[in-house]
Specification:
2 strands; 5% strand; mainly alpha
Length: 122
């Protein structure tokens, strides 16, 4: 079922979400300051490509206060808008029974979009 869910996800917008994250990542890599944030958008792109069966977990040894500081900066420069967008689409999709599994994937992306530093995807 995970493979079928991921294929349906890709056809109905997952590939477009991933492409947007990759483009944002490439734009962030132009500056040295943007490189850590570019890696986080690549992390979001990976989850956007194959969300069913993937799990977001906190790393055992996060970078401590550096990770927290980068999460705060991320949140202020755009992370909140990314998360709110995923929450919006998650709510819209959960209005129908068929859309609930896809809405849950948007909620997973929203949680990662809030604090991507110190998290990994399994």
């Amino acid at each position: 079922m995970k493979i079928l869910g991921n294929l349906i996800w890709l056809v109905f917008g997952g590939i477009l979400i991933a492409i947007e994250y990759v483009i944002a990542s490439l734009l962030l890599m132009i500056t040295i300051i943007g490189i850590p944030f570019a890696f986080q958008t690549l992390k979001l792109a990976g989850l956007a490509l194959w969300p069913f069966g993937s799990e977001v977990v906190t790393t055992e040894n996060p970078a401590g206060c550096t990770s927290t500081l980068l999460n705060v900066i991320w949140l202020l420069i755009g992370g909140i808008w990314i998360a709110l967008t995923h929450v919006f689409f998650g709510i819209i999709l959960c209005l129908t029974i068929i859309g609930i599994p896809f809405g849950k994937q948007h909620f997973k992306l929203a949680a990662l979009a809030l604090t991507p530093f110190g998290k990994t995807i399994r």
